[in-house]
Amino acid sequence: MPCLRLLMVLLLLAVPPWLHAAPPESVPTADDMAPRVLACVACHGREGRATNQGYFPRIAGKPAGYLYNQLRNFRDGRRSYPAMNGLLEYLSDDYLMEMASYFSRMDVPYPAPQTHNAAPAVLERGRQLVQQGDAAQGVPACVACHGTALTGVQKAIPGLVGLPRDYLNAQLGAWQAGQRHAHAPDCMADIARRLAPADVAAVSTWLSSQPVAGGGKPAAQPPGLLPLACGGLEGGLR
Amino acid sequence: MALAAALVWMLNLRGEAPVSDVLPQATASAQTVERGQYLARVGNCMSCHTAKGGAPYAGGRGIQTPFGTVFTSNLTPDDETGLGRWSADHFWRAMHHGRSRDGRLLYPAFPYTEYTQVSREDADAIYAFLRSLPPVKQAAPAHALGFPYSSQGALAVWRAMFFTPGATPTPKPVSAEWARGEYLVRGLGHCAACHSPRNAWGATRGGNDLQGGLLPLQQWYAPALTSAAEAGVAHWKTEDVVALLRTGQAPAQQASVSGPMADVVFNSTQHLTDTDARAIAVYLQALPQQAAPAGEARPVVAPAETLHLGARVYEQQCAQCHGAQGQGSPGAFPALAGNRAVLLSEPDNLVQLVLHGGYAPATAGNPRPHGMPPFLHVLADAEVAAVLTYVRGSWGNGAAPVSAMDVYQRREARR
How far is residue B212's CA from residue B79's CA, in Å, rounded to a whole number? Predict the structure, then answer.
């Protein structure tokens, strides 16, 4: 009899989305945010300034719209990373925006780049893809959207320098594998899928070898017209 | 054999009235729809009937059970894939008798074992609300259950053994408020689905005894509402119970919700009217309480090197928020000294909190909650075990040690 275990434990645990009709305003950060975001710094470092050693990305000084988009993407399942998905599950748009604004205003210095001794051929291929792209494969230059200094563009395009190589590799891989999505049209998914594995490694290696210019401040405008249509560029900001 | 089958079938259909297929001609009044929306919140229908990032109430979420995965149905009024062709009678039969429009027996992952106590009037209001939603065409994936759990015959036997439609006789109401609380706790609130223990067949024992239940796949323990040593609230002020339900925290009790209960507060109980929250509190406070386990807290016996490691991890990772003496920080970080959630004999919840962290739910009453970081990638199993052993044995706490194997098993089981 005991072997005939029948049916269902009713486990009504839910992961429902919190669907807000309208995106909120950027809320000025209260002075008491620091203790409220201590849950973030165990991985992202004090003041969100993780070094580019290891895996976890720095979040300090990134454009608020970018951080807000990512927080919502994790909460709503467009980006898959269980620690982040679980952490944010029951938070509101307003509060996520407040967190994003808080970290975007962090102005703390960047450490020296951590990738050393990469093969010159790999570095050169990486530099080429980042600076010029690969027209034959339909890959635009990274700088066309992420800024000439690669420190990102307001309001929602992230910087690519000052990040760990493993993290960059993982993000391009996640886009290729459908583990990371942005708001439609998901231009980065299209670009990532056009990159060969060796090209992913070359881009990540070159980017993680670069010093961060100008304190890592995001540019106000992209250098020219964006080469692709991308979703979420307003970053939920009005 | 035929006789036994007939008996099982008869038990499955008992109490059912003939079902009309007629769809409502007029749209329900705005008042009824609004009431139905509120009741759907109280029943937390959306939590399960919405896929992550998907359209509300359009179903498709997989509910994992020890018997396999059941996918929730689409409750929007789409004709092909939702409730579009369901009459009010069909909906009532599902809520009250656990049968679908086409007569199929429903899996009790849908808690009709509790919803069977919901009144016809309330079920009709929920039906009216669901019909008011925009239809979404989205078929649910087929359930992924092994044999025999996948068969209607097995389900019929289970129902014959463990399910009786309709309200079960209850003690004489203490007051109208208590009776309302009982109706909500035992019916729509389906608190027993988590807070009552289950037998090997997945059925709650002896009805809604609320004596604490393990959620095996989530590896969370829903503590007993009948014990002051667990989550009993008989000794709380009623306002504190109301605050916990509506905001996710009860500062006066240094209590907050996490894990599956954070979901319940976020999606359901924060929306309760003050009257209903109070009625639930009154009912929970009147639950018969189990006697406290005999004996005083005993000093924890753990190897000195474990406690040494635990103390070091605590100082590095925990003390900043929870205090050097486990005293916490009122309104922000809970005290660990004397905290009954820390002292539960089941270490499941502590292990989950340390591995996965989590924010308290953002509610109208607590819109900017504090959170606990996930340590899954920061601490090894042995470090998690050591720090929990240290916390459970320090500052007057006297709960059993946690082993690295305890941590490993709970981490692996939740993947």
Answer: 40
Q: Let me know: does A65 contact A234? Beta carbons within 8 Å.
A: yes
Instruction: Provide, as residue numbers in chain A, all residues whose Cβ is less than 8 Å from the Cβ of B371.
Output: 36, 38-39, 87
| Binary contact (A9, B200; C-beta < 8 A) | no
Residue of A nearest to B43 (CA): A12
The residue written with tokens 């029951």 in the block is A90
Chain A closest-CA separation from residue B307 CA (Å): 22
Cis peptide before A120 (omega within 30 of 0): no
Nearest to A90 by CA among A156, A35, A13, A25: A13
Whether residue B149 and residue A6 make contact (CB cut-off 8 A), yes or no, is yes
Q: CB B198 to CB A82 under 8 A?
A: no
Sign of CA dihedral A46, A47, A48, A54: negative
Between CA A16 and CA A81 the distance in angstroms is 17
- What does the longest C-alpha to C-alpha distance in chain A come to? 72
Contacts of A95 in chain B (CB under 8 A): 362, 367-369
Assign B180 a pLDDT band (cuts: 50, 70, 90). very high
Tell me the shortest Cα–Cα distance from B150 to chain A, in angstroms. Answer: 9
Which candidate from A8, A16, A41 shows the least CB-CB separation from B46?
A: A16
Of the candidates A7, A15, A41, which has its C-beta nearest B201's C-beta? A7
Q: Which residues of B touch A78 (CB under 8 A)?
A: 53
pLDDT tens per residue, range B336-372: 999 999 999 989 999 999 999 999 999 999 999 999 9
Question: Which of residues A49 and B147 earns the better pLDDT score?
Answer: B147
> CA–CA separation, B221 vs B200, rounded Å?
16
pLDDT in tens, A150-180: 999 999 999 999 999 999 999 999 999 999 9
> What ipTM, to 2 d.p.?
0.91
Domains of chain A plus CATH, in order, are 2-104 (1.10.760.10), 120-234 (1.10.760.10)
pTM of the model: 0.89
Rounded CA-CA distance B255/B330 in Å is: 10
Searching chain A, which residue's CA lies closest to the CA of residue B197?
A9
Query: How many CB atoms within 10 Å of residue B205?
Result: 12
Q: CATH classification of B304-413, choosing from 3.30.70.20, 1.10.760.10, 1.10.3380.30, 3.90.1640.10?
A: 1.10.760.10
Given pLDDT bands bounded at 50, 70 and 90, which one contains residue B167? Answer: low
B158–A7 C-beta distance less than 8 A: yes
Quick check: B200 and A2 in contact, CB under 8 A? yes
Contact flag B63-A11 (C-beta cutoff 8 Å): yes
Please indicate whether, in this complex, the C-beta atoms of B154 and A7 are within 8 angstroms of each other.
yes
Tell me the domain boundaries of chain B: 2-162, 176-198+207-286, 304-413
The residue whose two tokens read 């998905």 is A85
